[in-house]
Design goal:
The protein is mainly α and 532 residues long. It is built from 24 helices and no strands.
């Protein structure tokens, strides 16, 4: 019964958080954190907790795999140098900056370094949930960085815990751990994609394909963890390759099914993770007296500020160095102003992964004594996450607007066009290439030239409609009117179908299939079902 209470409680809180957020006008993750905190007061939920292994091994592979499937590969290729620097050197620099700040406020250095490793990496799921207002290029850069930086953080964390337990590490030991983590994770991700390719290419049933797709990230994560490589990188690399080979690994039916199922699943997982942050905060808060709690809250606020400031300063420094060493035209095109870098500092949110890393701190030392400052480190990490979401979340849109008013033109390189405009441009480009090939395609398909001519006229009409903008004239206006009539016809067909079912002239299973086809007809007008 207790298990059912937990499941229902979490489910209700996740739904309530998503429903309430637009009403109270605060970000969904913050709503979930607050509800998680309140959940701790509900009878039967007082001791609700989630082992860190559940986050790292059950939640993380699925969430990272979906994020990697929806991350721009072109953006990664174009800004690979910057992504590598921020996902490695910046994580280490941030960990030590946080450790210095925490130690200067009274936290022992060993515990402070563990704290720094935990909160150093921005979280991919938090970025996807909270940083949607970013210009397209910056959003993709942040997502790509967040997908690959956990490996660095876990290496720093392992070293920090080892030092706290009395271990010693030579420069070679640290280099070996980093190489195994990064190169091992990348190679296993490539190998897993190579294994998946022949398997997927032999599957045709959409459900079976998507079942295999769900298993893939967990298999990649497991294989990497078995050899002490980065499971995060293995999942991300496998996901990026799978996305690039999507047309060969899946079918239109399986991709449509995945576009419906994965957003729902990842939204539930995301909500549960932010609830976990609130629940763990609730559990930890009442372990300390008021004076100690206020002190730790102050440390957490300082840590949250350090995360933003250190990121901005690091980006400023690295950009200065890169500009001095690389003056190529290609590098100049990628330049961003200091305003854009401040946006990047504010947009780098921490999430449940940081809390999971902190929760994985051992309970005891080698001699059996309690691990010093463990609860303090976990609480500071949780409070820093909450402070970041609470302060940076509402502040980010204002910082983005400020940057847009006075930023470098390159900052808005991809933001000048709306998503709809980018889609229209791509569709027009595809149509312009297909149109002259129609006679050859018609001959290959075994249809008459007259059919090819009709298809050419149809393409010209669509192009005219897309180029017309808001001016509905001529053929474009006629096509728009036809689309409106199409929607009205579909609505009427649904009414007729309901009537036929009531009169038992059509059975329920047939009605379900027909209703699904009508839904696809209506969705076809947009050509896409939003997943965020």
């Amino acid at each position: 019964m207790e298990g059912l209470i937990v499941v229902v409680g979490i489910g209700v809180a996740v739904v309530a958080g998503n429903a309430l957020a637009p009403i109270v006008r605060i970000p969904v993750p913050l709503t979930q954190v607050l509800l998680g905190f309140l959940l701790g007061f509900v009878p039967g939920m007082e001791h609700l907790s989630m082992p860190h292994e559940v986050v790292l091994m059950l939640f993380l592979p699925a969430l990272l795999f979906w994020e990697s499937l929806t991350t721009s590969k072109n953006a990664i290729r174009r800004d690979l140098r910057g992504i590598l620097i921020t996902s490695t050197v910046l994580v280490v620099a941030t960990a030590f900056a946080v450790a210095w700040m925490a130690s200067s406020l009274g936290i022992p250095w060993a515990a402070a370094l563990i704290l720094g490793a935990a909160v150093a990496p921005p979280d991919a799921t938090a970025a996807a949930a909270l940083a949607k207002g970013l210009p397209q290029r910056q959003f993709m850069l942040l997502k790509a960085e967040s997908l690959t930086n956990d490996g660095t953080a876990l290496v720093v964390y392992s070293i920090a815990v080892g030092l706290a337990l009395g271990g010693h590490y030579t420069p070679w030991d640290i280099t070996r751990m980093a190489l195994v983590s990064f190169l091992g994770g990348i190679l296993i991700g490539i190998a897993m994609a190579a294994v998946a390719y022949p398997v997927f290419s032999r599957l045709s049933d959409p459900i079976v394909i998507n079942m295999a797709l769900i298993v893939t990230p967990y298999a990649a994560y497991l294989a990497a963890e078995l050899v002490h490589a980065s499971g995060v990188l293995a999942v991300v690399v496998c996901g990026l390759i799978s996305s690039a080979l999507s047309n060969r690994l899946s079918t239109p039916q399986s991709r449509t099914q995945a576009e419906h199922a994965w957003p729902l699943a990842t939204s539930l997982l995301n909500g549960a993770l932010f609830l976990l942050v609130g629940v763990e905060t609730h559990l930890l808060v009442f372990r300390f007296d008021l004076s100690k709690l206020l002190l730790l809250t102050g440390v957490a606020a300082a840590v949250a500020a350090t995360l933003v400031v250190s990121r901005f300063l690091f980006l400023q420094l690295t950009v200065t160095i890169i500009r001095a060493l690389d003056r190529s035209p290609e590098q100049r095109k990628r330049r961003m102003s200091y305003r854009a870098r401040l946006v990047s500092g504010v947009a780098a949110f921490r999430g449940a992964v940081s809390l999971a890393i902190a929760l994985s701190i051992p309970l005891t030392m080698n001699d059996g004594s309690p691990f010093p400052y463990r609860d303090e480190v976990v609480l500071i990490a949780a409070l820093a996450i909450v402070i970041g979401i609470t302060v940076q979340g509402p502040l980010l849109p204002r910082v983005i607007a400020w940057a847009a008013r006075g930023g470098h033109a390159g900052d808005q390189e991809e933001a000048e066009l709306s998503e709809e405009q980018r889609i229209s441009e791509a569709r027009l480009e595809i149509l312009s290439i297909v149109r002259p090939e129609l006679p050859a395609l018609a001959e290959r398909a075994g249809v008459s030239p007259r059919v090819a001519e009709e298809m050419t006229n149809r393409i010209d009409t669509i192009a005219a409609h897309m180029n017309s903008g808001d001016d509905e004239t001529g053929e474009a206006s006629e096509l728009a009117a036809l689309e409106r009539l199409h929607v009205a016809v579909i609505a009427r067909k649904r009414e007729i179908l309901r009537q036929l079912v009531r009169e038992r002239r059509v059975d329920d299973e047939t009605a379900r299939i027909l209703r699904a086809r009508m839904d696809l007809e209506e969705i076809h007008r947009e050509g896409y079902l939003p997943y965020e």
